[in-house]
Design a protein that fits this description.
Blueprint lengths: L1 H35 L3 H8 L2 H7 L1 H15 L2 H11 L6 H17 L3 H11 L5 H15 L6 H9 L7 H14 L2 H31 L1
Helix pairs in contact: 1-4, 2-4, 4-5, 6-7, 7-8, 9-10, 10-11
Length: 212
């Protein structure tokens, strides 16, 4: 008899967990939809509800608030949300996401102080490739430098044409920083050509996948 009770309890607990996860996913999707459809007042009300606090916890709540601020292009709110979210105890994946998101955002504003702040955070990560890419972007966009030109030229020479586009765009920017407009235009054209090649490949791959 006790065995039957145990089985019933386990099955009930499993069903409850499945139902809870389903409700959680549905609520998350609804909050994201409110952001993408720019229903900010409704989002602001729902994100502060007791149900959301209970289901998601502080990090997910602040992450959604950050994305709401970014989509709304509210600069003051974005600064506040970044400042708040980096106070959380983040796991490795969360740190990588938030630090790079902050770095790229402040690069786009060409804000030297804030970009350097997030570059320093990126350098606390263990992912060497991400640190390398951030250093390049910082030098090119913020310092208006070209110290990685030879490195990128060598790296790009060994790549397939369709994957060269991003590197070639960065190379064109470095030539601009050097005042070499002709070279900058040459690599900008190559970048556009090779990015188009990659777009075509991705479109073909997607078509083949959907037709299977």
């Amino acid at each position: 008899m006790k065995y039957i009770y145990v089985v019933v309890f386990v099955v009930f607990a499993l069903l409850l967990a499945i139902a809870f996860n389903f409700i959680k996913r549905q609520k998350y999707a609804k909050l994201v939809n409110l952001i993408t459809t720019q229903k900010y007042d409704e989002f602001d009300n729902q994100i502060e509800s007791g149900f959301v606090k209970f289901v998601f916890g502080p990090y997910v709540k602040d992450y959604l608030k950050l994305n709401r601020a970014i989509v709304a292009a509210d600069a003051k709110m974005i600064d506040e949300r970044f400042a708040e979210i980096i106070k959380h105890r983040l796991n490795t994946k969360q740190k990588q996401d938030i630090y790079m998101k902050g770095f790229n955002y402040y690069v786009s504003l060409e804000n030297p102080a804030k970009t350097k702040e997030y570059l320093d955070l990126v350098h606390t990560l263990s992912n060497e490739q991400i640190k390398k890419e951030a250093d390049r972007i910082y030098d090119i966009y913020i310092l208006k430098g070209h110290k990685y030109l030879d490195e990128l030229l060598e790296e790009t020479a060994d790549m397939q044409d369709m994957y060269k586009g991003v590197n070639e765009f960065l190379i064109s920017l470095m030539y601009e920083n050097m005042g070499e407009k002709k070279k900058a235009q040459e690599y900008r054209r190559l970048s556009e050509k090779h990015i188009e090649l990659l777009d075509r490949k991705l479109a073909r791959d997607h078509k083949e996948k959907t037709e299977k």
